[in-house]
Write a structure and sequence with these properties.
By secondary structure, this protein is an alpha/beta fold. The chain contains five helices and eight strands. It has a single domain, classed as Response regulator (Rossmann fold). One of its GO terms (molecular function) is G protein-coupled receptor activity.
Length: 194
Protein backbone atom coordinates (compact mmCIF):
# COMPACT_ATOMS: atom_id res chain seq x y z
CA UNK A 1 0.00 0.00 0.00
CA UNK A 2 1.48 3.32 -1.03
CA UNK A 3 0.51 6.48 0.84
CA UNK A 4 1.21 9.98 -0.34
CA UNK A 5 0.50 13.15 1.64
CA UNK A 6 0.74 16.78 0.77
CA UNK A 7 -0.13 19.26 3.50
CA UNK A 8 1.02 22.75 4.24
CA UNK A 9 1.68 22.23 7.94
CA UNK A 10 2.82 19.33 10.13
CA UNK A 11 0.41 17.57 12.45
CA UNK A 12 1.19 16.27 15.93
CA UNK A 13 -1.33 13.83 17.43
CA UNK A 14 -1.98 15.48 20.82
CA UNK A 15 -4.46 12.95 22.22
CA UNK A 16 -1.95 10.14 21.76
CA UNK A 17 0.72 12.12 23.63
CA UNK A 18 -1.73 12.88 26.45
CA UNK A 19 -2.65 9.18 26.72
CA UNK A 20 0.97 8.13 27.04
CA UNK A 21 1.65 10.78 29.71
CA UNK A 22 -1.28 9.52 31.79
CA UNK A 23 0.35 6.12 31.96
CA UNK A 24 -2.17 4.17 29.90
CA UNK A 25 -0.55 2.05 27.21
CA UNK A 26 -2.64 1.84 24.01
CA UNK A 27 -2.60 -1.29 21.89
CA UNK A 28 0.40 -1.93 19.69
CA UNK A 29 -1.74 -1.66 16.58
CA UNK A 30 -3.04 1.77 17.58
CA UNK A 31 0.49 2.97 18.39
CA UNK A 32 1.70 1.74 15.03
CA UNK A 33 -1.21 3.49 13.27
CA UNK A 34 -0.47 6.79 15.05
CA UNK A 35 3.25 6.51 14.34
CA UNK A 36 2.78 5.83 10.63
CA UNK A 37 0.15 8.57 10.37
CA UNK A 38 2.38 11.07 12.16
CA UNK A 39 5.37 10.22 9.94
CA UNK A 40 3.37 10.80 6.79
CA UNK A 41 1.75 13.94 8.16
CA UNK A 42 5.12 15.42 9.06
CA UNK A 43 6.51 14.81 5.58
CA UNK A 44 5.78 17.82 3.42
CA UNK A 45 6.16 17.09 -0.27
CA UNK A 46 6.41 19.48 -3.20
CA UNK A 47 3.72 19.84 -5.86
CA UNK A 48 5.17 17.10 -8.10
CA UNK A 49 2.13 16.54 -10.29
CA UNK A 50 -0.13 15.77 -7.35
CA UNK A 51 -2.87 17.83 -5.87
CA UNK A 52 -2.00 20.06 -2.89
CA UNK A 53 -3.68 19.23 0.41
CA UNK A 54 -4.33 15.59 -0.47
CA UNK A 55 -3.66 12.05 0.68
CA UNK A 56 -3.56 9.12 -1.72
CA UNK A 57 -3.58 5.50 -0.59
CA UNK A 58 -3.39 2.84 -3.31
CA UNK A 59 -6.02 0.10 -3.29
CA UNK A 60 -8.22 -2.12 -5.44
CA UNK A 61 -11.25 0.03 -4.63
CA UNK A 62 -10.77 3.75 -3.99
CA UNK A 63 -12.96 5.80 -1.66
CA UNK A 64 -12.88 9.58 -1.76
CA UNK A 65 -12.77 11.80 1.30
CA UNK A 66 -13.54 15.51 1.63
CA UNK A 67 -12.65 16.99 4.99
CA UNK A 68 -12.15 20.57 6.26
CA UNK A 69 -8.51 20.01 7.27
CA UNK A 70 -7.83 23.75 7.09
CA UNK A 71 -9.99 26.73 8.03
CA UNK A 72 -10.88 29.39 5.48
CA UNK A 73 -7.91 31.46 4.48
CA UNK A 74 -7.76 35.23 4.41
CA UNK A 75 -8.81 37.06 1.24
CA UNK A 76 -7.02 35.67 -1.80
CA UNK A 77 -5.76 32.54 0.01
CA UNK A 78 -7.98 29.43 -0.08
CA UNK A 79 -6.69 27.75 3.10
CA UNK A 80 -5.90 29.03 6.58
CA UNK A 81 -4.85 27.29 9.79
CA UNK A 82 -5.29 23.57 10.45
CA UNK A 83 -8.56 22.52 12.11
CA UNK A 84 -7.55 19.78 14.52
CA UNK A 85 -10.87 18.66 15.95
CA UNK A 86 -13.25 18.85 13.01
CA UNK A 87 -10.75 18.34 10.22
CA UNK A 88 -7.84 16.15 11.26
CA UNK A 89 -9.92 13.91 13.55
CA UNK A 90 -12.46 13.12 10.83
CA UNK A 91 -9.70 12.35 8.35
CA UNK A 92 -7.98 10.10 10.89
CA UNK A 93 -11.28 8.33 11.56
CA UNK A 94 -11.54 7.47 7.86
CA UNK A 95 -7.91 6.32 7.72
CA UNK A 96 -8.40 4.22 10.87
CA UNK A 97 -11.55 2.61 9.41
CA UNK A 98 -9.70 1.77 6.18
CA UNK A 99 -6.83 0.31 8.18
CA UNK A 100 -9.20 -1.85 10.24
CA UNK A 101 -11.06 -3.08 7.15
CA UNK A 102 -7.87 -3.83 5.22
CA UNK A 103 -6.30 -5.68 8.16
CA UNK A 104 -9.33 -8.00 8.55
CA UNK A 105 -8.66 -10.79 6.06
CA UNK A 106 -12.18 -12.22 6.37
CA UNK A 107 -14.08 -8.99 5.75
CA UNK A 108 -12.91 -8.26 2.19
CA UNK A 109 -10.69 -11.17 1.13
CA UNK A 110 -8.20 -10.29 -1.62
CA UNK A 111 -9.53 -6.72 -1.84
CA UNK A 112 -7.76 -3.65 -0.50
CA UNK A 113 -9.53 -0.36 0.07
CA UNK A 114 -7.65 2.74 -0.99
CA UNK A 115 -8.41 6.41 -0.50
CA UNK A 116 -8.09 9.78 -2.13
CA UNK A 117 -8.62 12.36 0.63
CA UNK A 118 -8.87 16.05 -0.24
CA UNK A 119 -9.03 19.20 1.86
CA UNK A 120 -12.07 21.48 1.45
CA UNK A 121 -10.41 24.34 3.36
CA UNK A 122 -13.90 25.01 4.81
CA UNK A 123 -14.99 26.64 1.53
CA UNK A 124 -17.78 25.36 -0.68
CA UNK A 125 -16.20 26.68 -3.88
CA UNK A 126 -12.80 25.16 -3.07
CA UNK A 127 -14.48 21.84 -2.22
CA UNK A 128 -16.26 21.91 -5.56
CA UNK A 129 -12.95 22.46 -7.32
CA UNK A 130 -11.35 19.62 -5.34
CA UNK A 131 -14.24 17.24 -6.03
CA UNK A 132 -13.57 17.46 -9.76
CA UNK A 133 -10.53 15.23 -9.20
CA UNK A 134 -12.94 12.45 -8.20
CA UNK A 135 -14.67 12.52 -11.60
CA UNK A 136 -11.53 12.79 -13.76
CA UNK A 137 -11.43 9.02 -14.23
CA UNK A 138 -15.00 9.03 -15.55
CA UNK A 139 -14.35 11.59 -18.28
CA UNK A 140 -13.44 10.05 -21.64
CA UNK A 141 -10.51 11.68 -23.41
CA UNK A 142 -10.28 11.51 -27.20
CA UNK A 143 -6.66 10.77 -28.08
CA UNK A 144 -7.28 9.35 -31.55
CA UNK A 145 -5.56 12.28 -33.30
CA UNK A 146 -2.57 12.47 -30.93
CA UNK A 147 0.63 10.60 -31.85
CA UNK A 148 3.97 10.33 -30.12
CA UNK A 149 7.20 11.22 -31.92
CA UNK A 150 7.73 7.51 -32.75
CA UNK A 151 4.25 7.33 -34.37
CA UNK A 152 2.58 5.28 -31.63
CA UNK A 153 -0.54 6.41 -29.77
CA UNK A 154 0.15 7.95 -26.35
CA UNK A 155 -0.16 5.97 -23.16
CA UNK A 156 -2.32 8.07 -20.87
CA UNK A 157 -2.53 6.96 -17.26
CA UNK A 158 -6.11 7.30 -16.14
CA UNK A 159 -6.73 8.46 -12.55
CA UNK A 160 -8.23 5.88 -10.20
CA UNK A 161 -12.02 5.68 -10.17
CA UNK A 162 -13.52 6.79 -6.88
CA UNK A 163 -16.61 4.70 -6.06
CA UNK A 164 -17.94 6.96 -3.32
CA UNK A 165 -17.02 10.07 -1.35
CA UNK A 166 -17.10 10.40 2.44
CA UNK A 167 -17.18 13.75 4.16
CA UNK A 168 -18.29 17.24 3.19
CA UNK A 169 -19.59 17.98 6.68
CA UNK A 170 -20.97 21.45 5.92
CA UNK A 171 -24.35 21.62 4.14
CA UNK A 172 -23.20 24.16 1.55
CA UNK A 173 -20.22 21.97 0.64
CA UNK A 174 -22.35 18.80 0.54
CA UNK A 175 -24.93 20.34 -1.79
CA UNK A 176 -22.36 21.63 -4.29
CA UNK A 177 -20.32 18.42 -4.30
CA UNK A 178 -23.40 16.17 -4.49
CA UNK A 179 -24.66 18.06 -7.54
CA UNK A 180 -21.38 17.43 -9.37
CA UNK A 181 -21.02 13.80 -8.28
CA UNK A 182 -24.57 12.82 -9.23
CA UNK A 183 -23.83 13.82 -12.84
CA UNK A 184 -21.31 10.98 -12.88
CA UNK A 185 -23.37 8.51 -10.80
CA UNK A 186 -20.98 8.74 -7.85
CA UNK A 187 -22.21 8.52 -4.26
CA UNK A 188 -21.67 11.11 -1.53
CA UNK A 189 -21.78 9.85 2.04
CA UNK A 190 -22.19 12.70 4.52
CA UNK A 191 -20.17 12.40 7.71
CA UNK A 192 -21.84 13.08 11.03
CA UNK A 193 -20.85 16.04 13.14
CA UNK A 194 -18.91 14.57 16.05
Amino acid sequence: MQMQLIMSAPYKPRKQLRTLKEGRIPSLQLCLFWFIGACFCLEVLGHQGTQPHSIKIEGDITLGGLFPIHARGPAGVPCGEIKKEKGIHRMEAMLYALDQINSDLELLPNITLGARILDTCSRDTYALEQSLTFVQALIQKDTSDIRCSNGEPPLIRKPERVVGVIGASASSVSIMVANVLRLFASKLLISCGF
